[in-house]
Protein backbone atom coordinates (compact mmCIF):
# COMPACT_ATOMS: atom_id res chain seq x y z
CA UNK A 1 0.00 0.00 0.00
CA UNK A 2 2.83 2.43 0.80
CA UNK A 3 4.11 2.04 -2.75
CA UNK A 4 0.81 3.27 -4.23
CA UNK A 5 0.03 6.95 -4.88
CA UNK A 6 -2.01 8.61 -2.13
CA UNK A 7 -5.08 8.91 -4.37
CA UNK A 8 -5.15 5.14 -4.92
CA UNK A 9 -4.59 4.52 -1.22
CA UNK A 10 -7.55 6.76 -0.34
CA UNK A 11 -9.80 5.03 -2.88
CA UNK A 12 -9.00 1.58 -1.49
CA UNK A 13 -9.60 2.71 2.09
CA UNK A 14 -12.92 4.33 1.15
CA UNK A 15 -14.00 1.09 -0.51
CA UNK A 16 -13.13 -0.85 2.66
CA UNK A 17 -15.04 1.54 4.91
CA UNK A 18 -18.11 1.22 2.69
CA UNK A 19 -18.14 -2.52 2.05
CA UNK A 20 -16.69 -4.20 5.14
CA UNK A 21 -19.73 -3.35 7.37
CA UNK A 22 -22.00 -4.81 4.69
CA UNK A 23 -20.16 -8.13 4.61
CA UNK A 24 -19.06 -8.64 8.23
CA UNK A 25 -20.90 -8.22 11.50
CA UNK A 26 -18.27 -6.54 13.65
CA UNK A 27 -17.45 -3.04 14.80
CA UNK A 28 -15.76 -1.13 11.99
CA UNK A 29 -15.46 2.58 11.39
CA UNK A 30 -13.44 4.91 9.20
CA UNK A 31 -10.82 5.40 11.91
CA UNK A 32 -10.05 1.67 11.84
CA UNK A 33 -8.58 1.68 8.32
CA UNK A 34 -5.27 3.36 7.56
CA UNK A 35 -1.98 2.85 5.75
CA UNK A 36 0.67 2.70 8.44
CA UNK A 37 4.12 4.16 7.93
CA UNK A 38 7.37 2.22 8.10
CA UNK A 39 7.98 3.89 11.46
CA UNK A 40 4.66 2.64 12.83
CA UNK A 41 5.35 -0.86 11.58
CA UNK A 42 8.74 -0.85 13.32
CA UNK A 43 7.21 0.34 16.60
CA UNK A 44 4.49 -2.32 16.45
CA UNK A 45 7.04 -5.06 15.73
CA UNK A 46 9.17 -3.87 18.65
CA UNK A 47 6.17 -3.92 21.00
CA UNK A 48 5.17 -7.41 19.82
CA UNK A 49 8.50 -9.12 20.46
CA UNK A 50 9.03 -7.48 23.85
CA UNK A 51 5.50 -8.36 24.95
CA UNK A 52 5.99 -12.03 24.05
CA UNK A 53 9.33 -12.10 25.88
CA UNK A 54 7.72 -10.54 28.97
CA UNK A 55 9.97 -7.49 29.13
CA UNK A 56 7.04 -5.16 29.90
CA UNK A 57 6.46 -6.93 33.22
CA UNK A 58 8.50 -4.87 35.69
CA UNK A 59 7.42 -6.58 38.88
CA UNK A 60 10.06 -9.30 38.97
CA UNK A 61 13.70 -8.35 39.46
CA UNK A 62 15.99 -9.37 36.62
CA UNK A 63 19.73 -9.19 36.04
CA UNK A 64 19.20 -7.60 32.61
CA UNK A 65 18.10 -4.10 33.58
CA UNK A 66 18.63 -0.60 32.26
CA UNK A 67 18.39 2.90 33.70
CA UNK A 68 15.87 4.96 31.76
CA UNK A 69 15.63 8.76 31.78
CA UNK A 70 12.02 10.01 31.86
CA UNK A 71 11.30 13.27 30.06
CA UNK A 72 13.03 16.52 30.92
CA UNK A 73 12.37 16.40 34.66
CA UNK A 74 15.63 14.65 35.41
CA UNK A 75 13.78 11.59 36.74
CA UNK A 76 14.97 8.08 36.00
CA UNK A 77 14.06 4.52 36.88
CA UNK A 78 15.59 1.05 36.64
CA UNK A 79 13.53 -1.55 34.78
CA UNK A 80 13.91 -4.62 32.61
CA UNK A 81 16.03 -4.18 29.53
CA UNK A 82 14.04 -4.52 26.31
CA UNK A 83 15.35 -6.17 23.14
CA UNK A 84 15.92 -4.54 19.77
CA UNK A 85 14.79 -5.99 16.46
CA UNK A 86 16.43 -6.35 13.06
CA UNK A 87 14.24 -7.36 10.13
CA UNK A 88 15.42 -7.82 6.55
CA UNK A 89 12.84 -8.64 3.91
CA UNK A 90 13.23 -8.85 0.17
CA UNK A 91 13.02 -5.09 -0.42
CA UNK A 92 13.65 -3.28 2.87
CA UNK A 93 15.64 -3.41 6.08
CA UNK A 94 14.35 -2.28 9.46
CA UNK A 95 15.82 -1.69 12.91
CA UNK A 96 14.17 -0.67 16.19
CA UNK A 97 15.56 -0.46 19.72
CA UNK A 98 14.96 1.44 22.94
CA UNK A 99 16.96 4.58 23.66
CA UNK A 100 17.18 4.85 27.47
CA UNK A 101 18.87 8.25 27.49
CA UNK A 102 18.93 11.07 24.94
CA UNK A 103 21.89 12.77 26.64
CA UNK A 104 24.23 11.68 23.85
CA UNK A 105 22.19 13.67 21.33
CA UNK A 106 23.88 17.05 21.43
CA UNK A 107 24.18 18.79 18.07
CA UNK A 108 21.24 20.54 16.35
CA UNK A 109 21.61 18.21 13.37
CA UNK A 110 21.26 15.17 15.63
CA UNK A 111 18.28 16.73 17.41
CA UNK A 112 16.46 17.22 14.11
CA UNK A 113 17.20 13.68 12.95
CA UNK A 114 16.21 12.23 16.30
CA UNK A 115 12.78 13.88 16.18
CA UNK A 116 11.90 12.01 13.00
CA UNK A 117 13.43 8.67 14.01
CA UNK A 118 12.50 8.45 17.69
CA UNK A 119 9.04 7.30 18.77
CA UNK A 120 7.89 8.04 22.33
CA UNK A 121 4.78 6.34 23.69
CA UNK A 122 3.15 5.10 26.88
CA UNK A 123 2.08 1.47 27.27
CA UNK A 124 0.75 1.96 30.79
CA UNK A 125 -2.84 1.94 32.02
CA UNK A 126 -3.07 5.72 31.69
CA UNK A 127 -0.94 8.70 30.70
CA UNK A 128 0.25 9.16 34.29
CA UNK A 129 1.74 5.65 34.36
CA UNK A 130 5.29 6.81 33.55
CA UNK A 131 6.83 3.44 34.41
CA UNK A 132 5.82 2.28 30.94
CA UNK A 133 7.05 5.27 28.95
CA UNK A 134 9.27 4.11 26.08
CA UNK A 135 11.54 5.92 23.66
CA UNK A 136 12.37 3.81 20.59
CA UNK A 137 14.65 4.51 17.65
CA UNK A 138 13.14 3.03 14.48
CA UNK A 139 14.31 3.33 10.90
CA UNK A 140 13.40 1.65 7.63
CA UNK A 141 15.87 1.43 4.74
CA UNK A 142 14.06 0.84 1.46
CA UNK A 143 16.23 -0.93 -1.09
CA UNK A 144 18.41 -2.69 1.49
CA UNK A 145 16.51 -5.98 1.59
CA UNK A 146 18.13 -9.21 0.41
CA UNK A 147 16.62 -9.44 -3.09
CA UNK A 148 16.60 -5.72 -3.86
CA UNK A 149 20.24 -5.42 -2.78
CA UNK A 150 21.17 -8.16 -5.23
CA UNK A 151 19.53 -6.14 -8.01
CA UNK A 152 21.41 -3.03 -6.95
CA UNK A 153 24.63 -5.05 -6.86
CA UNK A 154 24.07 -6.38 -10.37
CA UNK A 155 23.42 -2.85 -11.68
CA UNK A 156 26.57 -1.65 -9.93
CA UNK A 157 28.67 -4.45 -11.42
CA UNK A 158 27.22 -3.91 -14.89
CA UNK A 159 28.00 -0.17 -14.80
CA UNK A 160 31.50 -0.70 -13.44
CA UNK A 161 32.24 -3.37 -16.04
CA UNK A 162 30.98 -1.13 -18.83
CA UNK A 163 33.26 1.72 -17.69
CA UNK A 164 36.21 -0.67 -17.27
CA UNK A 165 35.75 -2.08 -20.75
CA UNK A 166 35.71 1.39 -22.30
CA UNK A 167 38.83 2.52 -20.46
CA UNK A 168 40.84 -0.63 -21.18
CA UNK A 169 39.27 -1.60 -24.50
CA UNK A 170 38.17 -4.98 -23.17
CA UNK A 171 35.14 -7.22 -23.69
CA UNK A 172 34.64 -8.56 -20.16
CA UNK A 173 31.13 -9.90 -19.56
CA UNK A 174 29.92 -9.43 -23.12
CA UNK A 175 29.89 -13.17 -23.92
CA UNK A 176 29.83 -16.49 -22.02
CA UNK A 177 33.43 -17.08 -23.13
CA UNK A 178 34.62 -13.89 -21.38
CA UNK A 179 32.35 -13.59 -18.34
CA UNK A 180 32.67 -11.26 -15.40
CA UNK A 181 34.05 -13.32 -12.53
CA UNK A 182 31.60 -12.68 -9.71
CA UNK A 183 33.10 -13.26 -6.26
CA UNK A 184 29.58 -13.42 -4.75
CA UNK A 185 28.50 -16.53 -6.68
CA UNK A 186 29.66 -20.12 -6.00
CA UNK A 187 32.59 -21.32 -8.06
CA UNK A 188 31.62 -22.17 -11.66
CA UNK A 189 28.00 -21.02 -11.43
CA UNK A 190 26.98 -19.15 -14.61
CA UNK A 191 24.43 -16.34 -14.56
CA UNK A 192 23.30 -13.45 -16.76
CA UNK A 193 22.09 -9.95 -15.93
CA UNK A 194 19.92 -7.96 -18.35
CA UNK A 195 19.45 -4.24 -17.69
CA UNK A 196 18.36 -1.56 -20.15
CA UNK A 197 19.16 -3.61 -23.24
CA UNK A 198 22.58 -4.62 -21.88
CA UNK A 199 23.47 -8.22 -21.02
CA UNK A 200 26.23 -9.11 -18.58
CA UNK A 201 27.51 -12.68 -18.45
CA UNK A 202 28.78 -13.74 -15.02
CA UNK A 203 30.62 -16.77 -13.64
CA UNK A 204 31.08 -17.39 -9.94
CA UNK A 205 34.51 -17.49 -8.33
CA UNK A 206 33.37 -17.80 -4.71
CA UNK A 207 35.68 -15.32 -3.01
CA UNK A 208 34.06 -14.27 0.30
CA UNK A 209 36.49 -11.47 1.14
CA UNK A 210 36.37 -9.99 -2.36
CA UNK A 211 32.56 -10.13 -2.26
CA UNK A 212 32.45 -8.18 1.00
CA UNK A 213 34.68 -5.45 -0.45
CA UNK A 214 32.58 -5.27 -3.60
CA UNK A 215 29.44 -4.71 -1.52
CA UNK A 216 30.91 -1.81 0.44
CA UNK A 217 29.63 0.96 -1.90
CA UNK A 218 26.06 -0.36 -1.65
CA UNK A 219 25.89 0.62 2.03
CA UNK A 220 25.99 4.26 0.94
CA UNK A 221 22.95 3.90 -1.33
CA UNK A 222 23.01 4.45 -5.08
CA UNK A 223 22.64 7.63 -7.13
CA UNK A 224 20.82 9.34 -4.29
CA UNK A 225 17.77 7.07 -4.71
CA UNK A 226 18.42 5.14 -1.51
CA UNK A 227 19.35 6.38 1.95
CA UNK A 228 22.89 5.75 3.16
CA UNK A 229 23.12 3.06 5.80
CA UNK A 230 26.47 4.36 7.02
CA UNK A 231 25.63 8.08 7.09
CA UNK A 232 22.04 8.00 8.34
CA UNK A 233 21.64 9.09 11.95
CA UNK A 234 21.51 6.23 14.46
CA UNK A 235 20.65 6.68 18.12
CA UNK A 236 23.45 5.73 20.55
CA UNK A 237 23.53 2.02 21.40
CA UNK A 238 25.21 0.48 24.45
CA UNK A 239 26.30 -2.86 23.01
CA UNK A 240 27.61 -3.93 26.41
CA UNK A 241 24.04 -3.87 27.80
CA UNK A 242 21.73 -4.75 24.92
CA UNK A 243 20.15 -7.65 23.07
CA UNK A 244 18.81 -7.99 19.53
CA UNK A 245 16.60 -10.43 17.64
CA UNK A 246 17.05 -10.82 13.88
CA UNK A 247 14.05 -11.91 11.82
CA UNK A 248 13.24 -12.85 8.21
CA UNK A 249 16.41 -12.86 6.09
CA UNK A 250 18.64 -12.76 9.16
CA UNK A 251 17.15 -16.11 10.18
CA UNK A 252 16.98 -17.61 6.69
CA UNK A 253 20.62 -16.71 6.00
CA UNK A 254 21.88 -18.37 9.15
CA UNK A 255 19.56 -21.39 9.26
CA UNK A 256 18.40 -22.61 5.83
CA UNK A 257 21.83 -23.69 4.60
CA UNK A 258 24.33 -23.31 7.43
CA UNK A 259 22.01 -24.56 10.21
CA UNK A 260 23.38 -21.82 12.47
CA UNK A 261 20.10 -20.15 13.41
CA UNK A 262 19.81 -18.96 16.99
CA UNK A 263 22.73 -17.40 18.83
CA UNK A 264 24.82 -15.50 16.30
CA UNK A 265 28.61 -15.77 16.34
CA UNK A 266 30.45 -13.71 13.71
CA UNK A 267 33.61 -15.92 13.57
CA UNK A 268 31.59 -19.17 13.29
CA UNK A 269 29.29 -17.67 10.69
CA UNK A 270 32.17 -16.25 8.62
CA UNK A 271 34.06 -19.55 8.59
CA UNK A 272 31.00 -21.53 7.47
CA UNK A 273 30.09 -18.93 4.80
CA UNK A 274 33.63 -18.92 3.38
CA UNK A 275 33.62 -22.71 3.13
CA UNK A 276 30.29 -22.72 1.29
CA UNK A 277 31.21 -19.93 -1.15
CA UNK A 278 34.47 -21.62 -2.12
CA UNK A 279 32.70 -24.84 -3.20
CA UNK A 280 32.00 -25.60 -6.82
CA UNK A 281 28.38 -25.21 -7.92
CA UNK A 282 28.21 -28.85 -9.03
CA UNK A 283 29.09 -29.98 -5.51
CA UNK A 284 26.49 -27.71 -3.91
CA UNK A 285 23.81 -28.87 -6.36
CA UNK A 286 24.65 -32.49 -5.57
CA UNK A 287 24.37 -31.80 -1.84
CA UNK A 288 21.02 -30.13 -2.44
CA UNK A 289 19.69 -33.15 -4.36
CA UNK A 290 20.92 -35.34 -1.51
CA UNK A 291 18.77 -33.44 0.98
CA UNK A 292 21.67 -32.04 3.01
CA UNK A 293 20.11 -28.61 3.35
CA UNK A 294 16.95 -27.39 5.05
CA UNK A 295 13.61 -28.15 3.41
CA UNK A 296 13.11 -24.38 3.11
CA UNK A 297 16.22 -24.01 0.92
CA UNK A 298 15.66 -24.11 -2.85
CA UNK A 299 18.04 -23.71 -5.77
CA UNK A 300 17.44 -19.96 -5.93
CA UNK A 301 18.62 -19.61 -2.33
CA UNK A 302 21.66 -21.80 -2.95
CA UNK A 303 22.49 -19.72 -6.00
CA UNK A 304 22.51 -16.34 -4.21
CA UNK A 305 23.24 -17.47 -0.66
CA UNK A 306 26.89 -16.44 -0.78
CA UNK A 307 25.87 -12.89 -1.76
CA UNK A 308 23.17 -12.68 0.93
CA UNK A 309 25.59 -13.84 3.62
CA UNK A 310 28.09 -11.17 2.62
CA UNK A 311 25.34 -8.55 2.52
CA UNK A 312 24.01 -9.51 5.96
CA UNK A 313 27.54 -9.39 7.34
CA UNK A 314 28.11 -5.90 5.90
CA UNK A 315 24.76 -4.60 7.16
CA UNK A 316 25.46 -5.82 10.69
CA UNK A 317 29.11 -4.94 11.14
CA UNK A 318 29.65 -2.00 8.78
CA UNK A 319 26.19 -0.49 8.52
CA UNK A 320 24.99 -0.84 12.12
CA UNK A 321 28.50 -1.09 13.61
CA UNK A 322 27.72 -4.27 15.58
CA UNK A 323 31.02 -5.46 17.17
CA UNK A 324 32.44 -8.69 15.76
CA UNK A 325 32.49 -10.18 19.27
CA UNK A 326 28.90 -9.11 20.07
CA UNK A 327 27.31 -12.06 21.93
CA UNK A 328 23.69 -10.91 22.20
CA UNK A 329 22.20 -11.28 18.72
CA UNK A 330 19.77 -14.12 18.17
CA UNK A 331 18.22 -14.96 14.80
CA UNK A 332 14.73 -16.44 15.01
CA UNK A 333 11.58 -17.26 13.11
CA UNK A 334 9.48 -18.29 16.11
CA UNK A 335 9.53 -17.07 19.72
CA UNK A 336 8.27 -19.59 22.25
CA UNK A 337 6.97 -21.67 19.38
CA UNK A 338 4.92 -19.00 17.64
CA UNK A 339 5.46 -16.30 15.06
CA UNK A 340 5.68 -12.71 16.24
CA UNK A 341 4.18 -10.22 13.78
CA UNK A 342 3.79 -6.46 13.93
CA UNK A 343 0.01 -6.92 14.09
CA UNK A 344 0.29 -8.14 17.69
CA UNK A 345 2.08 -4.93 18.62
CA UNK A 346 -0.57 -2.88 16.80
CA UNK A 347 -3.35 -4.45 18.88
CA UNK A 348 -1.45 -3.83 22.11
CA UNK A 349 -0.73 -0.23 21.17
CA UNK A 350 -4.26 0.57 20.03
CA UNK A 351 -5.86 -0.89 23.16
CA UNK A 352 -3.33 0.30 25.73
CA UNK A 353 -5.79 2.73 27.34
CA UNK A 354 -8.86 0.58 26.52
CA UNK A 355 -11.42 3.36 25.80
CA UNK A 356 -14.50 1.31 26.72
CA UNK A 357 -16.79 4.35 26.94
CA UNK A 358 -16.15 5.41 23.35
CA UNK A 359 -16.31 1.79 22.22
CA UNK A 360 -19.71 1.28 23.87
CA UNK A 361 -21.13 4.48 22.37
CA UNK A 362 -19.96 3.49 18.90
CA UNK A 363 -21.51 0.03 19.35
CA UNK A 364 -24.86 1.62 20.31
CA UNK A 365 -24.69 3.93 17.30
CA UNK A 366 -23.93 1.07 14.93
CA UNK A 367 -26.75 -1.02 16.41
CA UNK A 368 -29.14 1.92 15.91
CA UNK A 369 -27.90 2.43 12.36
CA UNK A 370 -28.41 -1.26 11.63
CA UNK A 371 -32.00 -0.99 12.87
CA UNK A 372 -32.66 1.96 10.60
CA UNK A 373 -31.41 -0.02 7.63
CA UNK A 374 -34.11 -2.68 8.13
CA UNK A 375 -36.85 -2.63 5.54
CA UNK A 376 -40.28 -1.12 6.29
CA UNK A 377 -42.08 -4.45 5.74
CA UNK A 378 -39.69 -6.39 7.95
CA UNK A 379 -40.06 -3.98 10.88
CA UNK A 380 -43.85 -4.03 10.70
CA UNK A 381 -43.93 -7.80 10.36
CA UNK A 382 -41.76 -8.08 13.45
CA UNK A 383 -44.10 -5.71 15.32
CA UNK A 384 -47.24 -7.74 14.50
CA UNK A 385 -45.46 -10.98 15.33
CA UNK A 386 -44.70 -9.63 18.80
CA UNK A 387 -48.34 -8.63 19.28
CA UNK A 388 -49.47 -12.11 18.21
CA UNK A 389 -47.10 -13.79 20.68
CA UNK A 390 -48.38 -11.61 23.52
CA UNK A 391 -52.02 -12.32 22.56
CA UNK A 392 -51.43 -16.08 22.48
CA UNK A 393 -49.73 -15.92 25.86
CA UNK A 394 -52.75 -14.12 27.35
CA UNK A 395 -55.20 -16.65 25.87
CA UNK A 396 -53.19 -19.62 27.18
CA UNK A 397 -53.00 -18.03 30.62
CA UNK A 398 -56.82 -17.50 30.72
CA UNK A 399 -57.53 -21.05 29.57
CA UNK A 400 -55.18 -22.45 32.20
CA UNK A 401 -56.71 -20.26 34.89
CA UNK A 402 -60.24 -21.42 33.93
CA UNK A 403 -59.19 -25.05 34.03
CA UNK A 404 -58.07 -24.70 37.65
CA UNK A 405 -61.12 -22.69 38.81
CA UNK A 406 -63.38 -24.85 41.13
CA UNK A 407 -67.02 -25.40 39.98
Automatic annotation (TrEMBL):
Catalytic center residues: 41
Cellular component GO terms, alphabetical: Golgi apparatus; membrane
BP GO annotations: CTP metabolic process; UDP catabolic process
Pfam families: GDA1_CD39 (PF01150)
Residues bound to ATP: 90-94
Residues annotated as transmembrane: 382-399
Keyword terms, alphabetized: ATP-binding, Hydrolase, Membrane, Nucleotide-binding, Transmembrane, Transmembrane helix
Keyword Phosphoprotein among record annotations: no
Gene Ontology molecular function, alphabetical: ATP binding; GDP phosphatase activity; ribonucleoside triphosphate phosphatase activity; UDP phosphatase activity
Domain of life: Eukaryota
Family recorded in the similarity comment: Belongs to the GDA1/CD39 NTPase family.
Name the record gives this protein: Ectonucleoside triphosphate diphosphohydrolase 7
Amino acid sequence: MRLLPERQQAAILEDLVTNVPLEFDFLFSKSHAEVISGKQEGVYAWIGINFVLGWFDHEDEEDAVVTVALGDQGKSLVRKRTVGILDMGGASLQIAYEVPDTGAISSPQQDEAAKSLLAEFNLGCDVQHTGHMYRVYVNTFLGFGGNFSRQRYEEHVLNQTYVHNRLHNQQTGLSPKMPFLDPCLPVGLEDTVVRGGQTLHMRGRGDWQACIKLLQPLLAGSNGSHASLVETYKAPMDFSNSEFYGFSEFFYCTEDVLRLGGQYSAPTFTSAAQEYCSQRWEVLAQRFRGGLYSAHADQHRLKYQCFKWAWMYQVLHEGFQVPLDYPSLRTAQLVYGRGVQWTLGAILYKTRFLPLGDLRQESIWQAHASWLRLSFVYKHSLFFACILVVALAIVLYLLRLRAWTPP
